[in-house]
Amino acid sequence: MTDGAEAHHDHRDVNGGWLRPAVFGAMDGLVSNLGLISGVAGSSASSHAIAVAGMAGLAAGAFSMAAGEYTSVASQRELVLAELDVERRELRRHPEDELEELAAVYVARGVEPELAHEVARQLSVDPEQALEIHAREELGVGPGDLPSPLVAAVSSFVAFAVGALLPVLPYLLGATSLVPAAALALAGLFVCGALVARVTAKAWWFSGLRQLALGVAAAGVTYVLGSLFGTALG
Question: Which secondary structure element, helix H or strand E, spans residue 155, and what is its range?
Answer without folding.
Answer: helix 149-172
